[in-house]
Structure to design on (258 residues):
């Protein structure tokens, strides 16, 4: 019950790492509100987590790229829970492409959801946390934001922006007691499976050598509940009270990051 009494928002909560984070926090005793575009799956994840307990979870349908929706939902969630201690922010999208032909539409979409969405959710959380001089914000970057990503250039650029933003927000909000870190995961989720399903044989081979072969712990992507969940609890809790501005790979050793 490391997070007994904690009030937490988790975006992207309907599947993948967001859903695993909801489960990890409820298992640790927290009160959680999940947010996602997918209402049916989001409600199911919250219901199942609450049934398992000992904490509980609710759900709100929110598009993280829309400023007014984010402000309204975060205020309503904090009012319902009686405050906000932690924001976990995995919500993001990935679309394929290559550097020569990536479209303005795809570029703008990924910048809107992945970059603007991070800024909006972080600002809304900080506004609620700062008066209490306490809070932890956990963003999601990517190894794609550190090195070339031949099949997803806009996604890669958007994650580089999340890294810079995370460091800037951590520096700006430390005085308010608000910590901001980013996870750089290599975890098997629907996003990962969908990206692989779109690849040609050649791209799959390149993907193996670029992404899987370099995972020191077993050459394969991790499990959202076993490998990511406990790290999310650590970054939410007082155990990480002196950790901020960090890009933390949870990737079995795929990347090493300062
Ligand atoms: N899977 C990996 O190995 C990997 C690697 C590097 C980075 N990441 C990052 O980790 C995070 C979690 O990834 P995942 O694999 O669990 O993804 P996922 O696609 O499985 O889940 C993402 C969730 O975000 C939601 N979402 C998308 N757009 C939204 C919006 N506008 N508003 C609200 N919700 C929205 C989706 O509905 C979905 O439920 C993402 O930021 C991703 O970029 C993942």
């Amino acid at each position: 019950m490391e997070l007994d009494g904690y009030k937490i928002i988790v975006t992207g909560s309907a599947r993948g790492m967001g859903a695993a984070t909801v489960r990890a926090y409820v298992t640790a005793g927290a009160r959680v509100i999940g947010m996602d575009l997918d209402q049916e799956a989001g409600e199911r994840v919250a219901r199942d987590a609450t049934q398992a307990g000992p904490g509980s979870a609710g759900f709100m349908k929110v598009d993280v790229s829309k400023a007014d929706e984010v402000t309204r939902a975060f205020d309503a969630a904090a009012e319902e829970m009686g405050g906000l201690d932690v924001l976990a922010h995995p919500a993001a999208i990935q679309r394929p492409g290559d550097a020569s032909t990536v479209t303005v539409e795809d570029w703008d979409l990924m910048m809107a959801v992945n970059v603007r969405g991070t800024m909006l959710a972080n600002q809304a959380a900080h506004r609620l946390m700062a008066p209490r001089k306490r809070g932890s914000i956990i963003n999601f970057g990517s190894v794609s934001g550190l090195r070339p990503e031949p099949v997803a250039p806009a996604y890669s650029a958007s994650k580089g922006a999340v890294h810079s933003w995370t460091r800037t927000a951590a520096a700006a909000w430390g005085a308010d007691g608000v910590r901001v870190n980013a996870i750089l995961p290599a975890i098997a989720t629907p996003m990962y499976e969908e990206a692989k399903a779109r690849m040609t044989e050649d791209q799959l081979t390149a993907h193996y050598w670029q992404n899987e072969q370099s995972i020191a712990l077993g050459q394969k992507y991790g499990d959202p509940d076993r490998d990511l969940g406990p790290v999310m609890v650590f970054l939410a809790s007082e155990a990480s009270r002196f950790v901020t501005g960090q890009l933390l790979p949870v990737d079995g050793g795929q990347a090493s990051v300062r």
